[in-house]
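Memo to structure team: turn this sequence into structure tokens by end of day. - J.P.
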Amino acid sequence: MNNNNSDILKAWWLLYGTFIFFPIIAGIDKFFNYLADWSIYLNPSLPLYLNISVGTFMYMLGIIEILIGLLVLIKPKLGGYAIMALLLIISVNLISMQSHYHEGYAHVMTHYDLALHDIALFISAYVFVILSKKLGKESI
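Reply from structure team:
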């Protein structure tokens, strides 16, 4: 197997762009719900526990996602850890919802498929952190 540093650098740049762009886009969309109705992916216990509305929770999450994307831009390794934490929290949230109904939907839903997707992204973020360390990309 050839350990070609240019391929490693290409992989790092792809992950770097991904973990900047997608959290920022998802964060902005928490204010507009153009890509998805994000509230259906939120365990309703969380905003109740925090004594805030679902909308307020989503706006706060949107701001956090935007900030994490910007953190990756400035401090890739630290931002990678933040992405990992966010994806782990999202996965636990999705799994905790189990089978449930959403108003306006005719069938019972689970979000286990999305939790698996976010766990795969968590692993990708870990690879990004490893590559950031290996390439000395602590900050840009």
